[in-house]
Every structure is written in C-alpha cells, then in structure tokens.
Design goal:
Layout: H1 11-30, H2 37-50, E1 62-65, E2 71-75, E3 88-91, E4 94-97, E5 101-104, E6 107-112, E7 115-118
Antiparallel strand pairs: 1-2, 1-3, 3-6, 4-5, 6-7
Helix pairs in contact: 1-2
C-alpha cells in the first residue's frame, strides 16, 4: 500500500504522512529473526503515541505473506509469534483522521537473520507524478 496525493494537501495531512513514514521505518528496523510480532507493532505505535495520535491508528502493523496475501503472524499488541529467517512479512501502519483523510505506507520485507531486507521498490513520495487531469 502506498498513499499518494493528486493535487495539493494540507500541512496537517502532510504531517500525518511524515508520521506514518516514520512509524513504518521504526517497525521495519525491528524486523529480524527471534523478534516477537508485538515488538514490531509496538515500535510503530510508539511514534504515534509520542505525537498523541495513537487513537487514529486503528489496525495492526502488518502480517505474514505466503500462499495468501494475509497470513499469520498478524502484528498487533497481542501477537506472540516469533519471526524466523526467510519469513516474508509486511509492515504497514496508518493514520486515519476524520475530515482530513488517511495515510498508509507498506513495505514487504524478508527476515534475514539479524536484520531484514526490504523487497518493496516503490518510492514513498507523497506526490503523484501525473497531473490530476491525466488520471
């Protein structure tokens, strides 16, 4: 998932986008072998808690990918699954604010021992490279 804008957005929306990008990277940085799924969720959630917007984060932080697009583990505060090398998972926090909009940024990552490797190659730029008139 990549949220992009077509046209202009408010500074409030732009700040939401920055926070989601920060939370997403915080979650990615935790992904490695032996980590419990709730730790990934907590890393992303801490960014939102620090800014007082955690009430606008209404879902888990990610999930496994396998034969199906949504598989276990589901990264939430209650997730006790432990990551193993070569597992492919998503990290995808989001914020949703009434009257402003929603932002969600997702990366697909593979657990690589004591780190992870980001598989997603789509840029995280907020702006659509095309004019609204051409879409």
């Amino acid at each position: 998932t990549r949220t992009i804008r077509v046209g202009n957005t408010s500074s409030e929306y732009d700040r939401m986008f920055e926070l989601v990008c920060e939370a997403e990277m915080a979650g990615v940085m935790v992904v490695k072998e032996g980590v419990v799924g709730s730790d990934i969720d907590a890393a992303a959630r801490r960014v939102f808690e620090r800014e007082g917007v955690d009430h606008e984060y209404v879902h888990g932080t990610g999930h496994g990918i396998g034969l199906y697009i949504h598989e276990q583990p589901i990264f939430s505060p209650r997730c006790v699954a432990v990551l193993a090398t070569n597992e492919v998972v998503t990290v995808e926090p989001g914020l949703y604010r009434g009257g402003v909009g929603g932002v969600r940024i997702e990366d697909l990552v593979v657990v690589a021992g004591d780190s992870c490797r980001i598989l997603t190659q789509t840029p995280k730029d907020l702006t659509c490279p095309r004019s609204p008139r051409t879409i």
